């Protein structure tokens, strides 16, 4: 799908405010409401818009500790990786799982928990028990310097 400036503006505005009304969205990008809605539906159908979500405050939910965990695996086989990915995918505290290169690790996990006791339980009783996990290195987030979800679409 070829994106023009209106599509890019639409995507940019939606990333900032996913609850904006179609009328307000159309006004912001200088289109008629019907044209705006037509474009929005086309972007959704093309798979450029994956969904709409609410962003929550982790600390207000009692999830004050964020950690980055580098995981090393014993074998680099599709079966081993698939099983690991399925098991970490079922852990609610895992916000992100990335298969990485350039480190002494195979995966990087971003996890959020209430405190160090909860982290210890997560690490020792769940993550390190996944078959194939041989090494774990943890780093704790002191402060989120940049924390954005919007992708650069060039619609500014």
- The chain-level mean pLDDT equals 96
Structural class: alpha+beta
Low-pLDDT regions: none
Strand element count? 4
H/E topology pattern: HHHEHEEHE
* Terminal CA distance: 20 Å
CATH homology superfamily of the largest domain: Lrp/AsnC effector binding domain/regulation of amino acid metabolism (RAM) domain
CATH class of the largest domain: Alpha Beta
Helix content: 25-40%
Q: Specify the CATH architecture of the largest domain.
A: 2-Layer Sandwich
User: Helix count, per DSSP?
Assistant: 5
Beta-sheet strand percentage? 15-25%
Provide the gyration radius in Å. Answer: 20 Å
CATH topology of the largest domain: Alpha-Beta Plaits
Describe it:
There is one protein chain. With 156 residues, this protein is α+β, with helices and mostly antiparallel strands. It folds into 2 domains: 5-45, Orthogonal Bundle (Arc Repressor Mutant, subunit A); 59-140, Alpha-Beta Plaits. It is 37% helix and 19% strand. The protein has helices at residues 5-16, 22-29, 33-45, 78-89, 116-127, and strands at residues 65-73, 94-99, 107-113, 133-140. Strands 2-3-1-4 form a 4-stranded antiparallel sheet. Strand 2 and strand 3 form a beta hairpin. The longest helix is centred in the first third of the chain and has 13 residues, at 33-45. It starts with a helix and ends in a 16-residue tail after the last strand. Pfam families: AsnC_trans_reg, HTH_24. This is Transcriptional regulator, AsnC family. GO terms for molecular function: sequence-specific DNA binding.
């Amino acid at each position: 799908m070829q994106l023009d400036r209106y599509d890019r503006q639409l995507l940019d505005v939606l990333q900032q405010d996913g609850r904006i009304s179609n009328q307000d969205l159309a006004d912001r990008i200088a289109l008629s409401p019907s044209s705006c809605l037509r474009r929005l539906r086309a972007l959704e159908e093309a798979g450029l818009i994956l969904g709409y979500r609410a962003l929550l405050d982790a600390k207000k939910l009692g999830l004050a500790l964020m950690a980055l965990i580098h995981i090393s695996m014993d074998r680099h086989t599709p079966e081993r990786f698939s099983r690991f990915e399925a098991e970490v995918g079922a852990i609610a505290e895992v916000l992100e799982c990335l298969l990485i290169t350039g480190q002494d690790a195979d995966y990087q996990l971003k996890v959020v928990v209430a405190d160090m006791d909860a982290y210890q339980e997560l690490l020792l009783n769940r993550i390190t028990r996944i078959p194939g996990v041989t090494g774990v290195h943890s780093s704790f987030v002191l402060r989120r310097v940049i924390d954005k979800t919007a992708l650069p679409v060039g619609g500014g």
